[in-house]
Every structure is written in C-alpha cells, then in structure tokens.
From TrEMBL:
Family: Belongs to the short-chain dehydrogenases/reductases (SDR) family.
Lineage: Bacteria, Pseudomonadati, Bacteroidota, Bacteroidia, Bacteroidales
Record key words, sorted: Oxidoreductase
Name under which the protein is recorded: NADP-dependent 3-hydroxy acid dehydrogenase YdfG
PROSITE patterns (UniProt xref): ADH_SHORT, PROKAR_LIPOPROTEIN
InterPro entries linked to this entry: NAD(P)-bd_dom_sf, Sc_DH/Rdtase_CS, SDR_fam
Amino acid sequence: MDKIVFITGASSGIGAGCARKFASQGASLILNARNVNKLSALKEELEKQYGAKIYLLPFDVRDRKAATSALESLPKEWQSIDILVNNAGLVIGTDKEQEGSLDEWDIVIDTNIKALLAMTRLIVPGMVERKRGHIINIGSIAGDAAYPGGSVYCATKAAVKALSDGLRIDLVDTPLRVTNIKPGLVETNFSVVRFRGDKEKADNVYKGIRPLTGDDIAETVYFAASVPEYMQIAEMLVMPTNQATGTIVSRK
Ligand SMILES: NC(=O)C1=CN([C@@H]2O[C@H](COP(=O)(O)OP(=O)(O)OC[C@H]3O[C@@H](n4cnc5c(N)ncnc54)[C@H](OP(=O)(O)O)[C@@H]3O)[C@@H](O)[C@H]2O)C=CC1
Ligand SMILES: CC(=O)[C@H](N)C(=O)O
C-alpha cells in the first residue's frame, strides 16, 4: 500500500495494532500519541521488521495549537496524508452521571470528540484538495446504547457516529470515504486507564471471555482502507463471538 497513514493514539492497543498492520503492507506512517518513549520503540520495531518509513508526531490531541503547529511542521514529503485514523480515546472511571467528576469528563469529551473533530478539520481540507482520502474513526459499540457507569463515554462514541455520518454527508460529492469502526470488548490498556491504574479490575473485564486484540481491530481498519475506491465501508460493528451487545456477554 503506497499511502501515508496518520494514526492518533498509536502508542498502545488498537492504534499500535493499526501501525503494525499498515507498516506490514508497505504504508508510510505518521504516528501520534503523548508517550514519546513508546512511539520511539514502535518506530524502531516497524523499521526493523518491515523497513517501514515512520514519522513521529507526538502531541496531545486536545491541544489544538500543538496539533496545528505539528501538522505545519511536517516535511513536504509527509504532508499529503491519504488515511487519517482518528483512534486516540479514553474513559476515566465508571461513575454515575449524577456523581462523576466534571474535570475527568472534560478530558474524555475533549479527547474523544473535540480532538477527533479538530484533527478532521485540520487534515480533511488537504484531502479534498488532492481529491483523495479516507477518514477512519474509531467509535465503539458503546455509541449504540448507553450502559451503567458509561454515560459520558457512550455519549462521546455516539458523537463519533454522528460526526462520521455527518462528514460522509458533507463529502458525498468528493472521492473521499468515511468509516466508523465500532469495536466491542478489546483487551488493551483502555480498561487500566478506565479503572485509574487498577490492573486487577481491568483484568476482570476480560475474564471468562476471549476478547479481541488491537491487532484484530487493525485487520478491520485495514480491510476498510483496502477495498476498491468505489466502495465505502460506512460502519463496522466488531465484537467477540460471546458478546452480543455492549452489556450482554457470556462468560465461561
Ligand atoms: N479497548 C476497547 O475495548 C475499545 C476501545 N475503543 C476505542 O479504541 C480507541 C483506542 O483505545 P485502545 O487502544 O483500546 O486503548 P489504549 O489505552 O491501549 O490506547 C489509547 C491510545 O490513545 C492515546 N491517547 C489518549 N489520550 C491522548 C491524547 N490526549 N493525545 C494523544 N493520544 C492520546 C494513548 O497514548 P498516550 O497515552 O501515549 O497519549 C494510546 O496510544 C479509543 O478511541 C477507544 O475509545 C472502542 C471500543 C472498544
Ligand atoms: C471500551 C469500549 O468502547 C468497549 N466497547 C466498552 O464500552 O467497554
């Protein structure tokens, strides 16, 4: 794949999985996250394993000024981004809507909604000009229906669906494509962040079920990116076999 792929939140989980998959297929990658050490280790791995061309662009996606100047700083040969994977995201806590921390929810909303929108706003005009591009947003099954303790997170992922659908409408007269990938249970660092570093609680989320991995979701992202240009995978809901909805899971 002779394309430039920009992945936010590439230092871990689904984003790192996407980096590995696209690198294995010959794409050139711009990798973003805040943790520079993890990004550098991934760059080294992908250069060694696949001879991939990697450009690191670490910044906090919530920082609009940093995002703007990072993108402006890209060398000319890296500016024509073909695929934007809006993946960076998180949740903190499982509090009820009437009890949780507004400060923590600001972080969740700013990352999952406002930063995704800002990256789209910064990168898509160039795609429109070049008449090629694909925006792949990582939504969630959580965007389909709210669940206990997930009110704000679910709302942000419902917003990702609305932003994806809206962008697809706004780009309907262009060759650009928009995809919303909606994973179910995927074992990554996500639950460790959700439970504020409590690894035992995080591990319990995946007890008794075979969860998906970041690499599994990367396969679906790559699939959406690699179908012929006249095809647009608008949405994909991908979950473990023993999961039926955001809350109905059979554990053995
Ligand atoms: N795991 C799951 O079950 C599911 C996850 N998802 C979604 O998948 C996406 C990836 O999550 P997942 O891989 O599971 O979780 P991880 O915690 O493993 O990865 C999250 C990534 O987002 C990055 N990130 C978080 N905040 C910022 C920020 N402010 N600026 C830049 N990067 C940031 C982190 O990097 P760093 O800390 O270095 O900045 C990390 O690379 C999220 O949008 C999540 O909502 C959707 C459905 C299911
Ligand atoms: C992290 C996710 O989005 C997951 N599907 C969940 O809602 O727990």
